[in-house]
Amino acid sequence: MSVGRGRLTQNEIARMAGVSQTTVSLVLNGRCEAAWRIAPETRERVLRVIRETGYVADPLARRLLQQHNQILGVFTYESVFPSTSVNFYHPFLSGIEACAESIGCDLLLFTSAPVSGGSRRIFHDNNRIRLADGCVLLGREIPRDELARMVAEDMPFVSVGRRDDAYLPSGKGGPVPHVGADYAQATAALVRRAVDLGHRVMAYVGAGAGPESAIDRLAGFTAAVRETGVDGRHEPADGRTRAELLDALCSARVTAVFCEELVEAVAMAEAARARGLSVPGDLSLLALGDPTEQAETDLDFTGFRIPREDMGWQAIEVLDDILHGRTSDHQRLLPCELVEGETLGARGPATGRN
Amino acid sequence: MSVGRGRLTQNEIARMAGVSQTTVSLVLNGRCEAAWRIAPETRERVLRVIRETGYVADPLARRLLQQHNQILGVFTYESVFPSTSVNFYHPFLSGIEACAESIGCDLLLFTSAPVSGGSRRIFHDNNRIRLADGCVLLGREIPRDELARMVAEDMPFVSVGRRDDAYLPSGKGGPVPHVGADYAQATAALVRRAVDLGHRVMAYVGAGAGPESAIDRLAGFTAAVRETGVDGRHEPADGRTRAELLDALCSARVTAVFCEELVEAVAMAEAARARGLSVPGDLSLLALGDPTEQAETDLDFTGFRIPREDMGWQAIEVLDDILHGRTSDHQRLLPCELVEGETLGARGPATGRN
DNA sequence: CAGACGCAGTAATACGAATTACGGGCTCCG
DNA sequence: CGGAGCCCGTAATTCGTATTACTGCGTCTG
Q: Which of residues 62-101 of B touch strand D (CB under 7 A)?
């Protein structure tokens, strides 16, 4: 019945029941005010035909008029189900799915978006975002202009992960609704913990730039370092071998290294081991967040966990709020859970508060 | 632009460009035969307005006429992204997503289907399957009547996992398109392997009934046992404690146990250990397929791996064939990869061929 | 010079369901 | 007995796009 002319339509049902299409529509979803106008006998006749044929209304035609169809889009700037490695996005989707189910919505995964210039784009010709009532955006980095355009065009959406305000060249745009992880707080908490354990010279290894998540980590590091009055340096880790980087850190007497990515932490541990340094005996290593790429290691890194599932859930909550015009907080930062690993050790005599 | 009256429509574009809606439509997607009718100058004018406004055609209205919209549905009879445990479905989705991306289709996850009587149902009032051009069905067990109805209604679909033919009480229905794992062959291969290693008395533990996957495993077991002429019994494992079951197996001198589920195998290993039996020294254990539920174990079970990702990919391939009227094989069984674990040991003097 | 034909575009219609406006038949009341 | 009011339902319209049929105008041809 789905393809071709043989489709089962309301008109068809009407013909079978000997009534008009309007009547069928009313019987199906007329609210009390309108439905009581149909005689019970007619109503039964229509319902019987519907039961017999198993007719269900075409969601498309319905949406065309109603402007909403209980479908939420999910746009990912990377592959949602990568075959390689542990999947960073899976927990987000888990939360998204659970919440969508709880509010009775279907999920549309935009897998068709073509990859251009390394990343996908929402706004390509023939895109289908408008099929959804609103959508959720996933990705480490999302082009600013796309976000701005979403805001400017009043397309209901929520970003998973904090995003800065976005504006188009024309000046249109504004704040971006998001549900993010509070990287700054989590990183700062780790710094304070290291200080408590006696560390006085520490370094942040990683770009600390680009995606908001990286910026926030570095910001949290910088703030906490200033607050506690210890020495904290930023090592971009670009264009140098890991050994060179380690050289620099050692000669600066750094005792705790905060790695932006888990892979970075793993590589540092490897380099330290190669040089005969023990972790955390000689050097403490901290990993700022869950692994985004596969990394082979048997070390249990100290760091924090991103509340990915909860972020997914709340993103849908916010989206639902937006769609229903509820003005709750549309920018949320969720606390991360600190992970007491084995790569952060005590340092020097002072183990008490700074 | 998405909600409310301010929507950008072809009519709007037409007004701005000073032409008719028809012209806009023709410029946008008139194929050569029709498009050459538009003067280049007019065409440019329309295109400019489209570029400036960023207009994209509403996929809904388009689909209403064209009968297809590059959306494939995914219906799961269990939660797709369960928060607990390893996710059995994840690899299927991985393959599905990859193939969908390769053919330029979006994926619609029917998360809104209400759970009634323990499992979801496709055909509930207000379902949205019809929004998709076709769909993929996932689940260990899928109600026969739902399958039959899909067939009867000519709704293009493919089941992931082998399915028997399905008929409605009315007699409508027929063969069910599917891409399954060849459980029978894989199980038979394991039996032959055990025979090669000297085993002469073996047992199949599990229902061996219900879902096709269970039926096929038992069928493969039974066939291989008959073929090789060894002793093979079926232990349904219901209503008995694991210890009682082990008693029965021991007194029957069973040396190799084929477990339908990994959890079952883990439990058996536990029971054997409790009784002082070594695996595989005293008893060989085989797990027939990947874990569908979380199971804590450090044993590396002998068994086979289901080509889940490939199944997902090929399911979409078949669906695409169906949608385009290509009559390839719509029922496929994919071979499983044998896993050389550590729970199948040699038995007795004869290690050569039977 | 009438009719055929090409050009460049438009009016009309269809898709399937929801909604608004209307209409025929009946009863009740003044 | 005429019209107000109700009952039960239908015709018409709407959503946004694609397609088909058509139209006015100029040009070419027999």
A: 62, 64-66
Are A148 and A165 members of one domain? yes
Token output for A17: 């029941």
Whether the CB of B46 is less than 7 Å away from nucleic strand C comes out as no
Domain that holds residue A138: 71-181+309-334
A26 touches strand C (CB under 7 A): yes
What is the total count of domains within chain A? 3
Chain C positions within 7 A of any protein Cβ atom are: 7-12, 14-21
Whether residue A65 lies inside any domain: the answer is no
Residue ranges of chain A whose pLDDT lies below 50:
1-5, 85, 350-354
Backbone angles phi, psi at A118, to 5 degrees: 90, -25
Please give the distance of CA A293 from its chain centroid, rounded to a whole number: 16
**Residue holding tokens 């060989």?**
B284
Contact between residue B59 and residue A71 where contact means Cβ atoms under 8 Å apart: no
The closest CB to that of A112, out of B54, B104, B131, belongs to B104
d(CA B349, CA A136): 63
Query: Tokens in use for A171?
Result: 């000046």
Query: Which of B264, B274, B279, B259 is CA-nearest to residue B202?
Result: B259
Residue B203 pLDDT: 96
Residues B350, B354: Cα–Cα separation, whole Å: 8
Specify the 3-state DSSP secondary structure of B41: helix
Q: Give the pLDDT score at A70.
A: 86
pLDDT value, residue A320: 94
Question: Does one domain contain both A244 and A199?
Answer: yes
Token output for A9: 């339509």
A20 touches strand D (CB under 7 A): yes
Token pair belonging to B102? 């390769």
Give the model confidence (pLDDT) of B279-312 as tens digits: 899 999 999 998 887 778 888 999 999 999 999 9
For B212-270, what is each residue's pLDDT tens digit? Answer: 999 999 999 999 999 999 999 999 977 888 889 999 999 999 999 999 999 999 999 99
Residues A230 and A177 in one domain: no
- Residue of B112, B310, B311 best to disrupt the A interface, most CBs of A under 10 A: B112
CA nearest neighbour of A75 among A165, A157, A185? A157
Nucleotide nearest to A9 (CA to C1'): C16
CB pairs under 8 A between A and B: 163
| Confidence band of B351 (pLDDT split at 50, 70, 90) | very low
Judge if B301 and B328 occupy the same domain.
no
pTM of the model: 0.86
The shortest CB-CB distance from A111 to any of B80, B107, B153 is to B107
Strands (E), chain A: 71-76, 106-109, 115-116, 119-120, 134-138, 157-160, 166-167, 173-174, 178-181, 201-205, 231-235, 256-259, 284-287, 302-305, 331-334, 337-339
Q: Give the other-Cβ count within 10 Å of B162's Cβ.
A: 22
Position B233 in a domain: yes
Centroid of chain to Cα B34: 43
Q: Residue B8, CA: closest nucleotide via C1'? A: D16
CB contact under 8 A, B56 and A109: no
Position A5 in a domain: no
CB A288 within 8 A of CB A303: yes
Residues A114, A250 within the same domain: no
- CATH number assigned to the domain comprising residue B114: 3.40.50.2300
C27 C1' – B71 CA distance, angstroms? 55
- Answer yes or no: do B28 and B104 share one domain: no
Looking across all nucleic acid strands, the nucleotide with the smallest C1' to CA distance from residue B13 is D16
Query: Do A175 and A268 reside in the same domain of the chain?
Result: no
